[in-house]
Amino acid sequence: MTAKANGLVDDHSGVIAGPTNPMVTPLLTDLYQFTMAYAYWKAGKHNERAVFDLYFRKNPFGGEYTVFGGLEECIRLIANFKFKEDDISFIRESLPGSSEDDFYNYLRRLDCSDVELYAIPEGTVVFPKVPLLRIEGPIAVVQLLETPLVNLINYASLVATNAARHRSVAGKSKMLIEFGLRRAQGPDGGIGASKYCYMGGFDATSNVAAGKLFGIPLRGTHSHAFVSSFMSPHEIIEKTLRSFDGSSSCEDFVSLVQTWLSKIQRANSCRGSFGETNQSELAAFTSYALAFPNNFLALVDTYDVMRSGVPNFCAVALALHDLGYKAVGIRLDSGDLAYLSCEARKFFCGMEREFGVPDFGKMSITASNDLNEATIDALNKQGHEVDAYGIGTYLVTCYAQAALGCVFKLVEINDQPRIKLSEDVTKVWLQS
């Protein structure tokens, strides 16, 4: 019932789908799991009933909580745990030649039908030394599950916690967008980060593959390369833009934008604040607005934010307004984000008063540029006008802490509790 409620069961076949990542197979484990499995089998202990707990010893990032992630992928693995013939051939090549043939016949028959999994619901706030998973089953099988289960939960819980911490410092009202794919540790890290940042409280991702796989809302506009690829408005060939309601057309949207730029330059609220703006930037903004008039959000820091980027954006936004469209806002990717966001907001409000455009002053301001908990906290203390944050490197790489440090410990065998003793008291564990 739980698996079906979580969307794991295919409605047509009733079968739990396999792991999202095709690399998650029974071979995604450490070699010593197979050497132990063989030793259990050789000793006739492989079917003894064992109980293992998976937990962590300390909250990450010096914090007071952890967000549990990765359970769904664990269920998918367990439900589809089966060795293929080429898997068994590779295991045979990897183990000492003295290993008996019957062990490989045992592996051929192996699955997790005798394994029971008890877990805290995914997305729950959890704490150290409280088992996230309890796995019961034949000891050799459960031992083979150790490494993949730890792998699937370790990063998932770490990045979900990192996302939740960013949400906490940003506040509930701000939009958080995960921008980390290009900086993540490979495609696996990028896909996992998008999924678990969303679980941890982010609103959207730039990662198209994650959007398709997990239904996460997508966000994205353009880069500095798009802005710098234009030389002048004369490059724009198709200049026609239909009005929002379709009742009319502007035959020369480029000229309409230029008209508005002239009006802004003469406006009382802007007099003396800027001179000639960068025309190649204006061409890029105009071209982008022609392509996406309903979703116009511009990156305004390619040249000069307040002397070019913001005035150029406003000229395009006001031209769109003439045709019934409403621009989304701007993105700042460099400079003093607190100061620039406040100055941009003042400029927007000035345009609203000057030209009587309702809610122009409320347009969205998005900030990016290597943001993390500390920089967002600093922005809050300075005072700012940022509405949304695009966060990448520090979020998805979990820069402040490399791993959660999950462990997998035997706590019971054949109804007898077991304990690990160690000179390091933090590693002593008894739970049953």
TrEMBL record:
Catalysis performed (reactions): 5-phospho-alpha-D-ribose 1-diphosphate + nicotinate + ATP + H2O = nicotinate beta-D-ribonucleotide + ADP + phosphate + diphosphate
GO terms assigned for molecular function: glycosyltransferase activity; metal ion binding; nicotinate phosphoribosyltransferase activity
Key word Acetylation present: no
InterPro entries: Aldolase_TIM, NAPRTase_N, Nic_PRibTrfase-Fam, Nic_PRibTrfase_pncB, Nicotinate_pribotase-like_C
Enzyme nomenclature, EC number: 6.3.4.21
Matching Gene3D superfamilies: Aldolase class I, nicotinate phosphoribosyltransferase
BP GO terms, sorted: NAD+ biosynthetic process via the salvage pathway
Keyword Nucleus part of the UniProt annotation: no
Superkingdom of this protein's organism: Eukaryota
Keywords: Glycosyltransferase, Ligase, Magnesium, Manganese, Metal-binding, Phosphoprotein, Pyridine nucleotide biosynthesis, Transferase
Enzyme class: ligase
Record Pfam families: NAPRTase_N
Cofactor section: Mn(2+); Mg(2+)
Domain Nicotinate phosphoribosyltransferase N-terminal: residue ranges: 27-154
Pathway given in the UniProt record: Cofactor biosynthesis; NAD(+) biosynthesis; nicotinate D-ribonucleotide from nicotinate: step 1/1
GO CC annotation: cytosol
Post-translational modification summary for this protein: Transiently phosphorylated on a His residue during the reaction cycle. Phosphorylation strongly increases the affinity for substrates and increases the rate of nicotinate D-ribonucleotide production. Dephosphorylation regenerates the low-affinity form of the enzyme, leading to product release.
Similarity annotation: Belongs to the NAPRTase family.
NCBIfam families: NAPRTase_put (TIGR01513)
Function: Catalyzes the first step in the biosynthesis of NAD from nicotinic acid, the ATP-dependent synthesis of beta-nicotinate D-ribonucleotide from nicotinate and 5-phospho-D-ribose 1-phosphate. Helps prevent cellular oxidative stress via its role in NAD biosynthesis.
Protein name: Nicotinate phosphoribosyltransferase
